[in-house]
Specification:
Elements: E1 2-8, E2 13-20, E3 25-29, H1 36-45, E4 49-54, H2 66-73, E5 76-80, E6 90-92, E7 98-100, E8 103-109, E9 118-122, E10 125-129, E11 132-133, E12 136-137, H3 147-157, E13 166-169, E14 179-180, H4 181-187, H5 197-205, H6 215-223
Parallel strand pairs: 3-4, 4-5, 5-6, 10-13
Antiparallel strand pairs: 1-2, 2-3, 7-8, 8-9, 9-10, 11-12, 13-14
Helix pairs in contact: 3-5
Length: 249
Amino acid sequence: MIFKQLFEPVSSTYTYLLGCEQTGQALLIDPVLPAWERDLAEVNALGLTLAYTVETHIHADHITSAKKLKETVGSKIAGPALDQLPCTDVGIVDGVPLAMGSIELAPLHTPGHTDNHFAYFHAGRLYTGDALLIEACGRTDFQSGDAAALYHSVRGTLFAYDDDTLVYPAHDYEQRRVSSIGQEKARNPRLGGDRTLEDFVRLMGELKLAYPKFIDYALPGNRGCGLCPPDVPAHLQQYCGQIAESRQG
């Protein structure tokens, strides 16, 4: 398998490129609109053809490049079937693998950050979206977020994997690139150790995080699989309204 981790600095988003050497196909997990040309250049440089873009959830801090990449190279858009977005080509269902040549992503419904959030497992790696970040987790105060659900998603589903399983999140704001299940069990200050459900729900309820600056543009944009809304302020047009200051975790 070919693997590359790509970073978009405005929203501190990681995009993951997975390539199948047998078929020459590639997929991108959580691609970001301003970086679509960079991502496509990476795919082409590896001699691959982009077959899929795969979303972990409807993002609130950036707009996906899924639609742009589909229009450019014909890649299929895959996202949680629970979101019922008419622009998706493949509806991701819990426990039903997404196969691309020798690569099979195992989808894991991990609600809490959003109600329809998914993580993906493949070859010793967990792509955890915003559910589990490095020594953090996604916020639970919008988009049908639910702290209790997130607790069970992380500790019941993700923490069930072997300690050596690598954790690749959708974001990191401290320039960290990878963690492991063992590390997060031991060191995650929100969900690790002996944190109880009651403690976690109280902690998340007391965070008092600022309202995400771009959510009002990102949500409709991502429900269209990558449409840049026409009313995005001019000073944000370069990134189609992405923001740098409002952390999602």
